[in-house]
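Morning - NAI inputs below, output right after.
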Amino acid sequence: MSEAQEIPIRLASKPSQQLGVSSVSTSPTATFHSPGSFGGALTRTTTGPAQRELKPFDTTDIKILLLENVNQSGRDILLDQGYQVESLKTSLPEDQLIEKIRDVHVIGIRSKTKLNQRVLREAKNLIVVGCFCIGTNQVDLDYAARHGIAVFNSPFANSRSVAELVIAEIITLARQLGDRSMELHNGTWNKVSARCWEIRGKTLGIIGYGHIGSQLSVLAEAMGMSVIYYDVVNLMALGTAKQVATLPELLGEADFVTCHVPELPETKNMIGAAQFEQMKDGSYLINASRGSVIDIPALINASRNGKIAGAALDVYPSEPGGNGDYFTNSLNPWAEDLRSLKNIILTPHIGGSTEEAQRAIGVEVGEALVRYVNSGVTLGAVNMPEVNLRSLTLDERDHARVIYIHRNVPGVLRKVNEILGDHNVDKQITDNKGDVAYLMADISNVQTSEIKEISDSLEALSSRILTRILY
Ligand SMILES: NC(=O)C1=CN([C@@H]2O[C@H](COP(=O)(O)OP(=O)(O)OC[C@H]3O[C@@H](n4cnc5c(N)ncnc54)[C@H](O)[C@@H]3O)[C@@H](O)[C@H]2O)C=CC1
Ligand SMILES: O=C(O)CCC(=O)C(=O)O
């Protein structure tokens, strides 16, 4: 009899797929459930030894909440596992979010959903957050880590989309295309060339030369622009771009200034009244990073007094949770002043909103979530050490994978190994990030009846944040 026939098999949500699951259901945060199977095995064809799926829980018990219209590619990966997936198109007001988050093991969000302490404190079953985007500033990463909640994102799948949007905006601003188009939509023919420019030979100043900034640098040079950049880190210049030492130096030289920094205390209002003064007369400002980076009332002044010739904004200090007629003074007190400016492009946070980017993000984050839930691997986590162990194979039947997230204090390893010591520790890896450490060990010669004892002993240690045992 093959191993796949020896274990209980239940149909997953997709009839074509059979998942090996244990006969008793439980939450993924539960560290133990009654003996049912010792190898929730899914027979797969792989090169090399067949890998075991590690799922102590019934996959249909895993509850996932996806907000903000996560791409179908990500939803499919989670549904294929048999997880229960609820998917909403918008983010949720905080009180509704708190109600929903109490129940779920996994939450998937984009940039709008704020997972602050108040929300995370209520998330008693949550083990992992998937940010289906680049930015993770909307999550209290430190609080999450200290409560054993891993956070994953997609660090560069939408970088190219943002860089292309910025290229479009540079030309649109230089040629006043937004205004001309709006005028003609209103029936007005207004053919002008005054203060309309080619971008060839102009200088682009990039603030933040990371994934997006450096991609943009290459595209801008291909269009004949000169590129300078300012970054807090000393970074290799691509092409003939040149790093400048200070922000004022960049602002004084650039015809177009574009921001690609993360939201941090240091980047808040990074471009304010003083910085507009340092910019060249008639230059342009673009921000597709985070709304907190620009002091918008200062931008409104700089536009009205002619210091800048135009601006493009994709992000705002307050953004609505879903689509609709929300861009008013009740959302941001200066919204209507901003809307009335000349040569200003306002887009609703669409920098990463392309089919290509969203599909790729869905796959990347969806797969990271499945890896974490099913086998504890933290590769790509942004708030926990990155820890990986090779998968157990189907031959390794009496093995269990112990995951112990704990406070990073002296003496923990000794105590953990005392607990695991009656078994054969086949592999063990541990790493830490700040105050939090992540230990993963594969142990053999384990009987199902022993798992609860191991789990209880680990849970009793004072260093414990979260224990999971997968088998
Ligand atoms: N509009 C949209 O739809 C999107 C917006 N974003 C935003 O763009 C930001 C940048 O994205 P990536 O390029 O992928 O990030 P990244 O992390 O690859 O690059 C950011 C760069 O900014 C630099 N930096 C940090 N603090 C700085 C400071 N005070 N002064 C100068 N440089 C500083 C860093 O050293 C780094 O090189 C993200 O954090 C996110 O907030 C990202 C994707 C889509
Ligand atoms: O598309 C989104 O929802 C967010 C894009 C973004 O700002 C990011 O990836 O950080």
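Note: The domain at 159-346 is CATH 3.40.50.720 (Rossmann fold).

O.
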